[in-house]
C-alpha cells in the first residue's frame, strides 16, 4: 500500500530593491499582496539571497516585515529599508561554562544556557539553577562531567539531581570501585564548593 507524497513548501516573499505600488509588485513578482496571508510567509528573498523572517508586525495601514537588518514595508507603497530594529520578545542568550570543585574531592564541568549575564559563581547559585530546571519524575537534573571521592571510592558523576520532595541535591553516577551504576550521594550540605563561570554572550 502506498502513501501519498506531501509537497511541503516554505512560502517566500520577494523584497523589492526600490519602491513600487502593489500593482507594480504583482506585475513583477506575480503576487497579489491584498489576496494573501502575509503571516504565512517564512522567508524573504532579497536580491540573490534568502533570509528568515524575524518578525511580522501589523501596522495601521499594512505590515512591516523584519529580516536580516532590513524592513519590508507593505502599505500603499511596497519598499525595503535598512533600519536598526529590535524584534519583540527577543532575548539575548548567554553560555555559562561552569567548573566546580571542592578541595579536589569533587571536580566537574557543565554548560548552562540562559538569558542572564549574571555569573553562576557560587554553590548556592548553582543549586538554585538546578532546582529551577524542568522536572522529570519529581527530579530536576543537570547533566555534568564530574568525579567524586567518598570513603575512598571514586565515582564518575553524570548528573546532579534535585529531589523536589526531599529538597536535597545528589551526585548520581557510577561507583568505579564495584561498578554500581546510578549510585547517588547526598551533596546538599556540601561545603567549600568553588564555582567558576566563564559566562559569555552568544547572540
What does this protein look like?
With 203 residues, this protein is mainly β. The chain has helices at residues 22-29, 123-131; strands spanning 12-14, 20-21, 43-46, 49-52, 55-59, 62-67, 70-74, 77-82, 94-102, 106-114, 135-136, 139-150, 153-163, 168-175, 180-186, 194-197, 200-201. The protein has two domains: 12-82, no CATH class; 94-201, no CATH class. It is built from two helices and 17 strands. The strands form three sheets. Strands 9, 10, 11, 12, 13, 14, 15, 16 and 17 form a nine-stranded antiparallel sheet that branches. A five-stranded antiparallel sheet has the order 2-8-7-6-5. The two termini are 48 Å apart.
Instruction: Supply Rg.
Output: 27 Å
Multimerization status:
single chain
Count of individual helical segments? 2
Percent helix: under 10%
Largest sheet: 9 strands, antiparallel
Structural class estimated from helices and strands: mainly beta
Number of strands: 17
Q: What number of structural domains do the residues give?
A: 2
Beta strand %: over 45%
Question: H/E series, N to C?
Answer: EEHEEEEEEEEHEEEEEEE
Shape summary? elongated
Calculate the terminal CA-CA distance, rounded to whole Å. Answer: 48 Å
Low-confidence stretches: none
Mean pLDDT: 87
Task: Briefly characterize the structure.
By secondary structure, the protein is mainly β. The chain is built from 2 helices and 17 strands. Helix content is 8%, strand content 49%.
